[in-house]
Amino acid sequence: MHNYQHRTHISERELQLHDVSISKLLKIAVEDKHIISLGPGEPDFLMSPVLQRELGKLKKYNHYSPPGGRHELKEAIAKKLIKENKINCNPENIVVTCGSQEALMIGVAVLCDVTEEIIIPEPSFFAYLPTAELFNAVPVTVATKEENDWQLNADDIKQAITKKTQAIIINTPNNPTGAVFSKKTLEEIADVAVEHDIFIFSDEAYEKIIYDKKHVSIGSFNGMEDYAITLQTFSKSHAMAGFRVGYCCAPKEIAEAIAKTQVYTTLSAPTVSQILALKALRSGNAYTNKMVKSYKQRRDFIVKRLNEIGLHTKMPDGAFYSFSNISNYSKVKDSKKFATMLLNKAKVAVVPGIDFGKHGEGYIRCSYATELHKIEKAMDRIEKTLKQYSRRH
Ligand SMILES: Cc1ncc(COP(=O)(O)O)c(C=O)c1O
Question: Hey, what CATH class is 59-282 in?
Answer without folding.
Answer: alpha beta
